[in-house]
Amino acid sequence: MDESNVELVGFYLSHRIGLLAVSVLFMAVVLELVRRSHLKERYALLWLAAASCGLVVGLFPQTVVSFSRAFNFQYLTVFFVSSFLFLLLLVLVFTVVISKLSERNRELAQEVALLAHRVTRLEVKKDGD
Amino acid sequence: MARILVIIPAYNEEATIVSVIADIRAAVPECGIVVVDDGSSDQTAALVREQGEAELLALPFNLGIGGGMQTGYKYAARNGYDIAIQCDADGQHPAGEIMGLVARIEDGTADVVIGSRYVADSNYQPSLVRRIGKSLLSRWINLFIGGGITDTTSGFRAMNRAAIAVVARSYPEDYPEPEVLVILHKHGLKAVEIPVQMRPRQGGVTSIRPHGAAYYMVKVGLAILIDIFRSYAPVGAKQ
Predict the structure, then answer these.
(1) Handedness of CA A90, A91, A95, A101 (dihedral sign)
(2) Cβ contact (<8 Å) for B75 and A116?
(3) What superfamily does domain B4-229 belong to in CATH?
(4) How many angstroms away from the CA of B118 is the closest CA of chain A?
(5) What's the CA gap between B197 and B144, in Å, rounded?
(6) A121 is in which domain, residue-wise?
(7) Were A61 and a residue from A11, B50, B131, B233 both cysteine, which residue would form a disulfide, CB within 3.0 to 4.6 Å?
(8) Which tens digit of pLDDT belongs to each residue from B188-218?
(9) Which of B207, B67, B62, B184 lies closest to A103 in space, CA to CA?
C-alpha cells in the first residue's frame, strides 16, 4: 500500500482504482441496457448520475475526504451513507412510478369493460337490422 | 320520470347474483341494472348473460371493490342516468328499499342517500368488536363531513347526477364507502341517511376479514385525512 499517497489525498489508491473500475463498468452496463431498449433513458439518467458521482470521487478524492474530515467521518462511512440515501431515493421514485402505473392500469381496465359492453350492444343491434 | 340505474359490483357471486337481479327487476321494473363483474373466476358473468335482465361490464382482471364500483358510476355518467343506486350482489340490500332511497333524491333532500343499518328501526346486529370499530370510524369521518351520518360503511346508497359525476372521476381503491362521503362533502354535496332493514348475506363471504379490520381502520382513517388536503380536478374537465 502506498502510504504517502494516503497522506497526500487521504484515500487509499486501491479504493480509488476500485471505485473508478466499478463506476466505469456500471456506466457501460447501463448504456448497453439503454441501447438494447431494456432500460428507459429517463431511469437510466438516475443510474448514470450515480456512476458519475463514483467517477468524480475516484478522480478527485479530495472532495469527499475534506467533507469527511469536516464532519469527523471516515470517508468509507460517507461513501456508504450516501449510497444508502441514493438507494432510498431510488426506491421512492420507483414506488411513485408504480403508483402512477397502477392508476393507469385501473383506468385502462375500466375502459376495456365499458368499450367491450358497447361493442356487444352494437353487434346485437346490427344483427337485429 | 328520472332514469334510474342500479349498479351491482360482483366478485364470485354466482350463488346469489341471479336472485338479486330478479328481486331488483321485480321491485323497480323500469330501472337499468348493470353488473360489474370484477374478474370473477366462477359463473357470475355467464349467469348474468344467460338471465339477460342486466347489462354486464366485465373487467379483464380483478380491480377490487373501488375500481369495480367506479366502473359502474362511469357507465352511469356516460349513459346519462339521473340516479344511480349501488347495491351488493350478496342479497344483503333489500330491493324493496331502493325506491325509498330514490324518493329522497327526487324530492331534492340530498345529493346522496345512504341506506343506514343503525337508524332507529333497523335490525342490524354486528359483533361487539365490529361495532366499536365502526363507531370510532364514524365519529372520525363525521368530524370532516359535518356530522349526521351514523352508518358510514353502508354500501347501499343512491346518488344524483352531481354526485355521479364526482365519483366517476375520483373513487378510492379499497374500502371506499367512508372515504367517498368525505370526497362528496368536499365537492359541496349533501348526504342524508334513512333507515333500511338489511337482510343477512344470502351467500358468498364478506370482503372484510377479521384480521383486515385493523388495516381497514388505519387505512381509511389516514386516507380521509389526506382527502381533506387533496386537490381534485374540477368535474367536467377532460380525464
Answers:
(1) positive
(2) no
(3) Spore Coat Polysaccharide Biosynthesis Protein SpsA; Chain A (3.90.550.10)
(4) 33
(5) 27
(6) 3-128
(7) A11
(8) 999 999 988 887 776 666 655 666 777 778 8
(9) B67
Dist CA A95 CA A107 (whole Å): 18
Q: How far is CA B142 from CA A4, B177, B182, B220, in A?
A: 72, 13, 9, 13
Residues of A with CB below 8 A from B44's CB? none
Q: Taking CA atoms, what residue in A is nearest to B36? A: A113
Cβ-defined contact of A106 to B61 (cutoff 8 Å): no
> What is the separation of C-alpha B163 from the centre of its chain, rounded to a whole number of angstroms?
12
CA pseudo-torsion sign B162, B149, B196, B58? positive
CA distance A101 to B212: 25
Q: How far is A41 from chain B (nearest CA, A)?
A: 27
Q: Write out residues in chain A with pLDDT < 50, as ranges.
A: 1-4, 7
Distance CA B69, CA B87 (A): 10
Q: Which residues pair with B83 in a beta bridge?
A: B4, B160
**Can you tell me the distance from the alpha carbon of A124 to that of A113, in angstroms, rounded to the nearest whole number?**
17
Residue A65 grid coordinates = 475526504
CA A10 to chain centroid, in Å, comes to 29
CA distance B174 to B158: 19
pLDDT of B121 > 60? The answer is: no
Sign of CA dihedral B70, B188, B83, B17: positive
The b-or-e profile of A26-35 (16+ CB within 10 A means b, else e) is bbeebeeebe
> How many angstroms away from the CA of B115 is the closest CA of chain A?
27
Residue bearing cell 339477460: B52
Residues of B in contact with A98 (CB under 8 A): none
B125 falls in which pLDDT band (50, 70, 90)? low
